[in-house]
Design goal:
Strand content: 15-25%
CATH topology of the largest domain: TIM Barrel
CATH architecture of the largest domain: Alpha-Beta Barrel
CATH class of the largest domain: Alpha Beta
Distance between the termini: 46 Å
Number of domains: 2
Radius of gyration: 20 Å
Number of helices: 14
Helix content: 25-40%
Number of strands: 16
Structural class: alpha/beta
Oligomer: single chain
Length: 387
Amino acid sequence: MKITKIHTSIVNAKMRNWVIVRVETDEAGLYGLGEATVEFQTHAVVGAINDLSPLLIGQDPREIERNWQILYRHPFFKGGVITMSAISGIDQALWDIKAKALGVPLYQVLGGLARDKVRMYDHLGGGNSDAVYNSETSESFEEKMKASISAGFTAVKILAVPRSEPLGSAASLKLADELMFAARNAAGPDIDIMIDFHGRTSAAAAIAYAEVLAPYKPFFLEEVVQPDQIEAFARVRDKVSTPLASGERLLTRSEFLPFLKAGLIDVAQPDVCHAGGITELRKIASLCETFGVTMAPHNPLGPIATMVNVHLGLSISNFLIQEVMRSDVPWRGDIVHGVPEIKNGYIHPPTAPGIGVEFDEAEAAKHPYVAVKPTQWYNNDGSVTDW
């Protein structure tokens, strides 16, 4: 069996454009799907896939480890998020081919079941960046929380930390308290609520926010500082007892290792579309297991990424919970078919071969690429800040 072609499709999903990868083989009807979506950098990752593809033409798609090494090592310059996302999408498609060739669901070639079902949590954001990251209200949180609970979810993630000055402010702390109060009041005591800081706070501000939020018993606090500020992360870790999560912007095992060695994170959040695909995410999971750290993979992306994560969650022993984005665009279910229903907050093992989904190119063509402007925030004095 040989790889004959690698190509991409772009599907607009409002806040981002999904990049869908298709790897074709010389066996009739046998191909693999993957996802390589990168927010605001769609053309760059498609270009990287085009650059890498010739390295694999003629290779056996089932030799996944060797193919991953070819993609990672042979370009000489190791890539950042663009190159690693390109590798991730191709890698997912190769695993899809391997499982399809064997006629089994993907989780079976990843070692079989480590659990009977995968717990999912709802992301209460949507496709509108202003609503998600800037102007949430107590009423909107309460409304979204009730909708998630009605859909059967027992866990959700919210962005309760508003746009913040370097040290925070009394007003922003008060707003975070009000938003979290509304969320907890709507959820009741038994729903797990994760809070995404989105890396928008300094260590001092993160500690202040964590103190305000602690009475509401958050499940974990996510990305409390920027991912390259490991010393700042250590300051937060020293002062905050709520579990801390991070990793959506870390690539490969080598970037997770300093956080693990320093005991900074309780929950690792690698993204299967950025960190190196299924091949590397499994290695990250094994490394995390060595340090007693659990896995909650990052996933605000498309339905193919969601299904890949479901198979990983079924097969990884130190898996905790899986993020899913449901409310970004209404055409999710039109573009990709075969995603199982979430029942009582869980997805059960799919039975179709491979990842278990089909990509409808005709429907995808109805939602072509649309340029998405990155969210841009500024402090009150006009200086640039993280969002």
